[in-house]
Amino acid sequence: MEIMIDLLLNIGSGILLILGGFFCVSGGVGLLRFPDFYTRMHAAGVTDTLGAGLILVGLMLQSTHLIVLLKLILVLLFALLTGPAASHALAKAAMHGNLKPLLYRDKSTR
Amino acid sequence: MLIGVAAAILIVMMLALIRAFIGPTLYDRILAVNMFGTKTVLLIAVLGFLTARPDFLDIALAYALINFISIIGVLRFFEYNRPNFTDGNHD
User: Fold this and answer.
1) Could you tell me where the DSSP H helices lie in A34-110?
2) pLDDT band, residue B87 (cuts 50/70/90)
């Protein structure tokens, strides 16, 4: 029975880690390919919290000691709290620094 | 498995650095540095599990806090006395 649980935990953490890595890489690619600052910030911010969340939960499944699990929960909590706050401050500073969002782009300039 | 995730995170850090170098506006660079910082937190946590040393998570926790404070500090500095931008998309 123990082996079954360990097997399931390992498979679960593996799947979560792979998904988290994929979302982090998609965020990085989005950071490079998007045309405007605000779209890049959307790409970075969204996949940042999601990728970090998946990777940290994947690590949680592998943790053996309780204290490691608690620390991982704290890291996940701070990541989920500070991510949106930093993105909001960045967007406000950008708007305050009169950086205009790219509202439309006709086909010619693509 | 963990090595794969660590490699993926390193790739994302490289992408963030590329955006930090070519980023036209100042805020792109701050965004890239912010993403680099959060990925460092993840990398430290994954490496802590890779080398079976649970005390790395304290470092990751401290780094997450410091990264957030530094982003807010940089934004607070640039929000009020802005350098005069020379690139296109500022009126």
Assistant:
1) 37-62, 66-96
2) low
